[in-house]
Amino acid sequence: MNATIEQNPQLASLRAAEEARRLAMLAGDTAALAVLFSDSLDYVHSSGVKDSKQGYLDQLASGALRYEVLEFIEPEFRLLGQAGLVTARMKATVLRGDVRKQVSSSFLAVWADSGGGWTLQIVQATPLPAAA
Predict the structure, then answer these.
(1) SS3 for the chain, per residue?
(2) Residue 4 has pLDDT above 80, yes or no
(3) Which of 10, 54, 66, 125 could form an SS bridge with 95, CB 3.0 to 4.6 Å?
(4) Cβ–Cβ contacts within 10 Å for residue 116, how many?
(5) Is the confidence at residue 24, as pLDDT, over 90?
């Protein structure tokens, strides 16, 4: 990250929330994600499938969705009023049931700062073209 984030406590806390999300996704930690996710979360996967908070958590809890590898590459953090915007590339190895899939996407995550911490409102992922 850069010095600007280190000098701005709000950006630093946004970065920490996004990293907590990544680690919780990788661990399948639905309790941690339930705290980070807004009750009205819309999570649009790179496949175009849209999940609610409960739908996403249910998939992780049941094992229908599991992350074996999850990297957020070159994340960028911005503040817009009480909103925090995170953009990055994601590389993951995902298990959906017994099917292992390599995922490469870019995403936008929209967080809200209610004064009591960041909550994730929206994730919109877009598949990246296969490397040539």
Answers:
(1) CCHHHHHCHHHHHHHHHHHHHHHHHHHCCHHHHHHHEEEEEEEECCCCCEEEHHHHHHHHHHCCEEEEEEEEEEEEEEEECCEEEEEEEEEEEEEECCEEEEEEEEEEEEEEECCCCEEEEEEEEEECCCCC
(2) no
(3) 66
(4) 6
(5) yes
At 66-105, the pLDDT tens digits run: 999 999 999 999 999 999 999 999 999 999 988 999 999 9
Of 86, 73, 69, which is closest to residue 5 (Cα–Cα)? 86
Query: What does pLDDT average to over the chain?
Result: 93
Q: Which residues contact 109 (CB under 8 A, 6 or more apart)?
A: 18, 21, 85, 86, 87, 120, 122, 123
Answer positive or negative: Cα dihedral of 15, 19, 21, 22.
Answer: positive
Residue 132 is predicted with a pLDDT of 46
Q: Report the amino acid identity of residue 119.
A: T
